[in-house]
Amino acid sequence: MRDQHAKVNGKTVRFEFRGKSRIQHAIDLRDARLARIVKACRELPGYELFKYVDEGGTHQMIDSADVNAYVREISGEDFTAKDFRTWAGTVLAAKALADVAAFTSNADAKRKIAAAVESVAKRLGNTKAVCRKCYIHPAILDAYMDGATIETPKARASRTARNRASLSAEETAVVGIIERQLKAPAASARRATSMKKTA
């Protein structure tokens, strides 16, 4: 990302850039600390936005490798920025599917899943195909086909039973659904066979 892609107005930062698949992004974030950091970065020489001056006075650029190294260091696990994006996409998909009525047929289910994927793709700035393949955990879609969403009684009970202080209520319910789906591979196989027959 380059200096020209960020504008600071008081406590608000607006990012405008072209991402993957040539998709245009326009994102407004209101955060005083972030605004100060972006403003300071823009004032440093060079066209790249994210940069800093090291202890020796040399200007250094921050790239995705630096971000991923930081994520691994603070988490103690082999995570990358993509894992956070995938988690966000998965939670958004779970919320979208919880907001729609139960499906009446496999064709109706496919339409509702496609609409949920499209809404997530718009939020993440991806194509629908990339979003579904890379940024939504398949267990969420499988659970919907099995009649489970984060707002079903079973998911609500799971959410209240857990003590995951670092997760929101929706995130906790998503974890519960994924765990249950991964324990029930036979049901998923039966459902996949049924969907192929009606496709």
Summarize the structure.
This protein is α+β, with helices and mostly antiparallel strands and 199 residues long. The protein contains 9 helices and 5 strands, in the order βββαββαααααααα.
Task: Characterize the structure shown.
The chain has 199 residues and is of the alpha+beta class. It folds into 2 domains: 3-62, Topoisomerase I, Chain A, domain 3 (Alpha-Beta Complex), CATH 3.90.15.10; 81-198, Orthogonal Bundle (Topoisomerase I, Chain A, domain 4), CATH 1.10.132.120. It is 57% helix and 12% strand. The chain contains 9 helices and 5 strands; from the N terminus they run βββαββαααααααα. The protein has helices at 32-43, 64-75, 81-98, 106-124, 128-134, 138-145, 153-161, 169-182, 185-198, and strands spanning 6-9, 12-18, 24-30, 51-53, 59-61. Strands 1-2-3 form a 3-stranded antiparallel beta sheet, covered by helices on one side. A two-stranded antiparallel sheet has the order 4-5. A hairpin with a 5-residue loop joins strand 4 (51-53) and strand 5 (59-61). Helix 3 (81-98) packs across helix 4 (106-124), helix 4 packs across helix 5 and helix 6 (138-145) packs across helix 8 (169-182). The radius of gyration is 21 Å and the shape is elongated. The model has no long low-confidence stretch (mean pLDDT 86).
